[in-house]
Amino acid sequence: MTTGSVVAFDQVTKTYGDVRAVDGLTLALHPGETVALLGPNGAGKSTTLDLLLGLKHADSGTVRLFGGSPREAIVAGRVGAMLQSGGLMDEVTVGELVKLACDLHPKPFRVTDVLARAGVSQIADRKVNKLSGGQEQRVRFALATAGDTDLIVLDEPTTGMDVTTRHAFWATMREQADQGRTVLFATHYLEEADAIADRVLVLHRGRLLADGTAAEIKAKAGARRVSFDLEGPIDEAPLRALPFLTSVDISGHTIRIQSTDADATVHALYGLGVFPRNLEVAGLGLEQAFVAITAAEESKSK
């Protein structure tokens, strides 16, 4: 395993015409971290992973893996990647494909161990073009972990997997991190980032908006959720005029709001002369925090 930075981006920029897919990105990843990469469509997640893996080259700035170039790290077998793009070889079996990956790796694991870890031992004799979407994802994971690597990069790894398979997959990834490997994954399943990641990176328009634990990201959003029920006819206007609101959702007799000062909002609510029932005040979940952070950034750019 390694010491020091596993990945280092220093003022990295990548453009496509007038679009800045990555805009002055600076970050570092360290051994044993499990890091989630979040961002809306077009945030620059895929380009960031492509730059990290040497599939694309930065217009400016530097990308270093283990102190050297991405190519050097990959040729040395220090990086395993599971990407959405690119198909699997047809007309070969799962076992044959995984064996090929092991044969090509500088520090291979045993084929039987790789198949078992990825949960594909029972389909080792099946042709790759006969697999379901979830099975294809598990085969891609097997290829990414065919050898002893220090960094595992995963792009939407659990797409197409059922709940049981997803849980088993993440249990395996925790084992990888516990062994000192760094795991970087991009996902649209924010509950996975909340439950799995030691650290969360939020990208928006190629820039790093937030970097911290899931709890720190939630706190950065600066808002809390307030929910309550009201009986009888509901006058929406004064509710929507409550102070410090960032959003309001009225569904029947249930009101759900987000506030940057929940105490002041609740005080003003009682000042309306209404009697809220089942009042709850809670912190934002990671999904709500993510939406709040990116929405605030969008409003700045208008």
From TrEMBL:
InterPro entries: AAA+_ATPase, ABC_transporter-like_ATP-bd, ABC_transporter_ATP-binding, P-loop_NTPase. Transmembrane segments: none annotated. Residues 7-230 form the ABC transporter domain. It is a peripheral membrane protein. PROSITE patterns: ABC_TRANSPORTER_2 (PS50893). GO terms for molecular function: ATP binding; ATP hydrolysis activity. Its main location: membrane. Keywords: Antibiotic resistance, ATP-binding, Nucleotide-binding, Transport. Gene3D superfamilies: P-loop containing nucleotide triphosphate hydrolases. One of its GO terms (biological process) is response to antibiotic. CDD domains: ABC_DR_subfamily_A. GO terms for cellular component: plasma membrane. It is found in: Cell membrane. This is ABC transporter ATP-binding protein.
